[in-house]
Design brief:
The protein is an alpha/beta fold. The protein is built from 12 helices and 19 strands. It folds into 2 domains: about 50-265, TIM Barrel, CATH 3.20.20; about 275-385, Lyase, Ornithine Decarboxylase, Chain A, domain 1 (Beta Barrel), CATH 2.40.37.10. It has helices at about 15-25, 35-45, 65-70, 80-90, 110-120, 125-130, 135, 175-185, 205-215, 245-255, 270, 305-310, and strands spanning about 30-35, 55, 75-80, 100, 120-125, 140-145, 150-155, 170, 185-190, 195, 225, 260-265, 275-290, 290-295, 315, 325-330, 340-350, 355-360, 380-385. Strands 1, 13, 14, 15, 16, 17, 18 and 19 form an 8-stranded mixed β-sheet that branches. Strands 2-3-4-5-6-9-11-12 form an 8-stranded parallel β-barrel, surrounded by 5 helices. The two termini are about 30 Å apart. Bound molecules: ligand LLP. Ligand LLP binds next to helix 11 and helix 12. It comes from Lysobacter dokdonensis DS-58. This is aspartate kinase. Keywords: Amino-acid biosynthesis, ATP-binding, Decarboxylase, Kinase, Lyase, Nucleotide-binding, Pyridoxal phosphate, Transferase.
Amino acid sequence: IAHGKPVKRVPWWVGKRDALLSIAGQATPTYAYDLPTVRDRARDLSAIDAIDRRFFAIKANPHPAILRTLVEEGFGLECVSIGELQHVFKSVPSLSPERVLFTPSFAPRAEYEAAFAMGVTVTLDNVEALQRWPDVFRGRTIWLRLDIGHGGGHHAKVNTGGVAAKFGLSLQRFDEFVDRARALGIRISGLHAHMGSGIDDPRHWRVVYAELAGMADSVGTIEIIDIGGGLPVAYTPDAEDFDLAAWRAGLEEIRAAYPRFKLAVEPGRFMVAECGALLLHATQVVEKDGVRRVGCDAGMNALARPAMYEAYHGIHNLSRLSDVELLEFDVVGPICESGDVLGHSRLLPAATAEGDVILVADSGAYGMAMASTYNLRALPAEDTIE
Ligand code: LLP
C-alpha cells in the first residue's frame, strides 16, 4: 500500500486454491486460466474512451475460451499467421472479418492472398512485397506498419524497433512506400506500430501516436492509428501494476492534439498473463553442493520464458500455502539442459516434497503458446475456471 491506494492486485488463485488442486489432481502439467480475470482486464481497457478499437494479440494465448471471452467484451483479434487466422474463425464462429487484423512478419505471398480473401484487415511493412507481388495488393485497402526507430521492452529479444529489428518499414522509406502504393491504387487507411513487449513507461504509447499522427497527413487517407501492444505486467514481488490512469491520461491528451484519427491498441500479455497458472507436481527434492532444488514434472518445455528471457514468474507451493517455515530452493524442470530453471533461489516451504502441487504464476501469456515437446515430453493440458 502506497499513498493509500493498492499498487498490486491480490492474485485470483489465492481464493481458488481448491479448484486448482482439483484440476492438478486430473493431470499436470496443466495451465489453468481464470476467465473472470480476463474479463476484468478487458473492462480495464474498455473503460478508456480515448481508444476506439481494441485487438487482442492472440499469439499470447489462443485458447478458444479466452478468445470468446474477449470478443464478447468487444475486442477484435490480431493474428500473425494463416494458422492464427483459421483458428480465430473456428474458435469464434460469430466473428466478423472486420474485427480481425493480420499483422504478419516475412509471411509468404499465399498468406497475404488468403487474408485478403477472408476479408480481414492486412498490415504490410515493406516496399519489397509491393514490388514483387503487385497483383496481391493492387486496389486494396491496407494498414502500413512503421518502425519509428526506437523500441523497448523487458528483454532485447522483444524490442521490435531500430536497425536490429526485422519489423516495420523504416521511416526513411516511407515516401517510397506511399508513392508505390498510390501507383498501385492502394489505399493506406491505417498507420501501425508495435515497438516492443513489456514496456514499463506509460508515456511510450503517446510518443508512438504522435510520431504516426505526424506522418499521417502526408498520406491523406489515414483514418486510424494503431499504437501496438506491449503493456507490461507486474511479474516480480516488488513491481507495481501498470499505471493505467497515467496511460489513459497520456492517450487522451495526444488524441486531443490529433483528433482526426481513430486510435487502436493491440495488447497480448496485459490481457492474459495474470489469468494463467501453470500447475505442476513436485517430483524430487534434492540437495547438491549446498543448493536445494525442487524438481517439477515440467520446466522450460511448458514455460520457456525463464530460460529464454530470464523472465521472472512467482512460484508457490499450493499444497502448503500457509507454511511459515521457508527455505530457498531453485525450481527446476525435467529437461536435459542446465537452463531448465523456472526460478532461482525462491522461498518455498521447508517441507516441500514429492507430490506437492507447484503453481507458476502469471503464466497465461506466452506460456502454452510457446510450449514444446522437447525431450518428447507431452504438452501441458489446459483448463478454464469460470
Ligand atoms: N502486436 C504485435 C504486432 C506484436 O508482435 C505483439 C507481440 C503484440 C501486438 C502484443 O504484444 P504484448 O502486448 O503481448 O507485449 N514471447 C515474448 C513476447 C513476444 C511478443 C511478440 N509480439 C514474451 O514471452 O515476453
